[in-house]
Design brief:
The chain is globular, with a radius of gyration of 25 Å. With about 650 residues, it is an alpha/beta fold. It contains 19 helices and 17 strands. The strands form four sheets. It has a six-stranded mixed β-sheet with strand order 12-17-16-15-13-14, sandwiched between helices. A five-stranded parallel β-sheet has the order 4-3-2-1-11. The protein starts with a helix and ends in a 64-residue tail after the last helix. The protein has two domains: about 375 residues, Alpha-Beta Barrel (TIM Barrel); about 180 residues, 3-Layer(aba) Sandwich (Rossmann fold), CATH 3.40.50.1700. It binds alpha-D-glucopyranose (GLC). Alpha-D-glucopyranose binds next to loops.
């Protein structure tokens, strides 16, 4: 099957080739004003003695081995034995990759493959300097590529929790699970500030407001990596983090994935740069370049921002990883050759299936001087610095194989806490909390795919089945357990509602999972409108309805909200669906067992008109503003929302 992103990359490359041919001169290198950018400084990632070791290592390395360090291949393409001919410095497992082509491999099998790569990289061979290969993966809401991992709510939900310490604890727990499988590095956190729900990656952002992203960034980094300056991170069950995607991924026109952020410099910095100073000051070891462009210049070729600003003004001393063939979008480049990206400040090419040709073309460019040796040496130094800072040269990797930490009960409890803290109560006319001893009709929500969203086992998360989540709890399971546990009755399906009329119906509906450009939308409606018919049917029978909406973004659901007695924004809660029951099912007497604390970190649209997120007072004012969220302790009557498609 051709990876859809490859097709996309081919199309993008073709379009850029045409554009490049059309504008032979290409855009001049943009001028930036450092004084408009925040100052930051990586804490010392390693000590002076280690820097001396790095200098000695670089002095021993052949040109080919230096070039190998700046090329990363995907495990779906590169095999451990390939490292003998192509001494790559890194491998990754992309969203659709698994050990030995098995996306559902066990944690033990992931560890086996990681160890095979390390063994070849550390072999003593003539002309080879043994240097560990750093293995990266998208663990963006838990160790989500691996069956059995605990999956947390996606970032949009964590934003609604307004709890940086929760984000830190989730980072630490995720790092432990990653470390058990022999992997060193996660491409997380995303520090995007999404500005438009049309973007398919909105859910990867914490908030549409820079300040919350700013508050979360250092916590996310420290959770994954440990405190700044921590020596031997891997030995402490920590991994390298990635601040991504630098910069402006969430600010593209119309929310187009990989599009252009057309913004004045000061606004660009103020909004989309918000998370980076905190991440750098917290010692983030890597930064990922964005596919997007700023005012027409692709970030993978933006020397002013990648070098003068990120590494100069903002003092970043780790390394910049490119995105998945992201270098191919630089004018004059393709996925097999792009010296311009390295010269601009990318330190490592993410060349998933193009690594052989990228290795060869980069070696030629280094030999010809098209890539200056000083630039190559600087990139290699940064990469080795990160490997030393992680503790990769220390053979002890005590967390490997500690599978009691993988999918542990403690991590599940943390994830369930995160679910509770992330839910936002948009409306409640008194239907909540549901008395646990009630007769409750449940719409079937055992679909873990909707509950976990994209970046789950596979890239899109749309091909998973229940057996991919061996210890997970579906939303329905959680609700059933809470009701039956208190002597209540669950009515499945709506066979004969007159005969056994329920006291209340719980309807769960929302978006099917998606990732990246596959989540981009042009219409204001989510892709599932089944909820409204169900809700209205119950109401016509005189049955109160509690609705839980699962989505990766706020969408126009004013009709469903109006038709419901109570309405909860559930986002994509992850494997611990029981957290929803904790909030909406009270005790046998009807008292709350937990209360809502979640507050919107994105405004909720009041009009069926897709536009950038708006604020109170704007023409297309939101139905519910930033910071909105009801609770049992602080309820409010919600007026009927306009169902006029224009929101007037
Ligand atoms: C993707 C994403 C990036 C991810 C990378 C590796 O295209 O843009 O966020 O880390 O490829 O899977």
């Amino acid at each position: 099957m051709t990876d859809p992103r490859s097709l996309r990359a081919i199309l993008c490359a073709a379009l850029f080739a045409l554009a490049t041919a059309a504008s032979a001169a290409g855009p001049a290198s943009p001028v930036v004003h450092p004084e408009l950018w925040p100052k930051a400084k990586s804490p010392p990632l390693v000590d002076a003695a280690t820097e001396a070791k790095i200098t000695a290592l670089i002095g021993q390395m052949s040109l080919a081995e230096k070039v190998g360090q700046v090329v990363q291949g995907d495990i779906g393409s590169v095999k451990p034995q390939d490292l003998r001919e192509y001494p790559l410095g890194s491998v990754l497992a992309g969203g659709n990759s698994g050990p030995y082509d098995d996306e559902r491999a066990s944690p033990q099998t992931w560890l086996k493959l990681a160890r095979e790569f390390h063994a070849v990289a550390l072999e003593t061979r003539p002309g080879h300097v043994p240097i560990p290969v750093i293995f990266g993966i998208d663990a963006v809401h838990g160790h989500n590529n691996v069956v059995g991992a605990v999956l947390y709510p996606h970032n949009i939900a964590l934003g609604a929790a307004h709890d940086p310490d929760l984000v830190r604890r989730i980072g630490a727990a995720t790092a432990e699970e990653i470390a058990t499988t022999g992997i060193d590095w996660t491409f997380a956190p995303t520090l995007a500030v999404p500005g438009d729900a049309r973007w398919g990656r909105t859910y990867e952002g914490y908030s549409s407001e820079p300040d919350l992203v700013r508050r979360y960034s250092s916590a996310a980094i420290e959770g994954l990596q440990g405190a700044p300056g921590l020596a031997g991170r891997l030995q402490a069950g920590r991994v390298a983090a990635t601040a991504k995607h630098f910069m402006g991924d969430g600010g593209t026109t119309l929310g187009e994935d990989q599009g252009d952020s057309a913004l004045p410099e000061a606004e660009f910095v103020g909004r989309h740069g918000a998370g980076y100073p905190g991440a750098i000051d917290a010692g983030v070891l890597t930064v990922m370049a964005s596919y997007s462009s700023w005012n027409g210049t692709k970030m993978h070729g933006h020397q002013a921002l990648l070098t003068a600003i990120l590494k100069g003004r903002m003092g970043f001393d780790g390394f910049v990883i490119g995105d998945w063939n992201g270098h191919s979008q630089v004018p004059g480049c393709n996925k097999d050759r792009c010296p311009a990206a390295l010269n601009a400040g990318v330190d490592m090419y993410m060349a998933p299936n193009s690594w052989k040709k990228v290795f060869k073309s980069t070696l030629e460019a280094a030999q010809s001087g098209e890539i200056p040796m000083a630039r190559l040496d600087d990139a290699v130094r940064r990469i080795l610095r990160v490997k030393f800072a992680l503790g990769m040269f220390d053979p002890a990797r005590p967390y490997e194989g500690r599978f009691e930490l993988f999918g542990s009960d403690a991590h599940r409890a943390l994830a369930r806490e995160a679910v509770r803290k992330s839910l936002v109560l948009l409306k409640n006319d008194g239907a909540l909390p549901i008395r646990a001893s009630s007769r409750v009709l449940l719409s079937d929500m055992s679909d873990l795919a909707m509950q976990t969203g994209g970046w789950t086992i596979s890239w899109q998360g749309s091909d998973t089945t229940r057996k991919d989540f061996p210890k997970a709890e579906s939303i329905t399971q959680g609700l059933r357990a809470a009701i039956l546990g208190a002597g209540g009755k669950v009515i499945d399906g709506a066979d004969d509602l007159v005969a056994e009329k329920p006291d209340v119906a719980i309807i769960v509906f929302g978006e099917q999972p998606y990732a990246e450009m596959f989540g981009d939308i042009k219409l204001p409606f989510y892709n599932q409108r089944t909820g409204l018919r169900e809700i209205e049917h119950m109401r016509a029978l005189g049955i109160p309805v509690v609705t839980v909406f699962l989505s990766g973004r706020p969408l126009w659901v004013s009709q469903e909200i109006n038709a419901s007695n109570a309405f909860v924004a559930g986002w994509q809660p992850g494997t611990e669906g029981g957290g929803i029951a904790d909030l909406i099912i009270g005790d046998a007497k009807g008292a709350p067992r937990h209360d809502f604390t979640g507050k919107l970190s994105f405004p909720w649209p009041g009009a069926a008109v897709l536009a950038p997120f708006t604020h109170a007072g704007d023409k297309l004012a939101p139905a519910f503003p930033l910071g909105y969220g009801l609770s049992y302790a602080h309820g409010a009557k919600v007026a009927r929302l306009s169902e006029d498609l224009g929101g007037r």
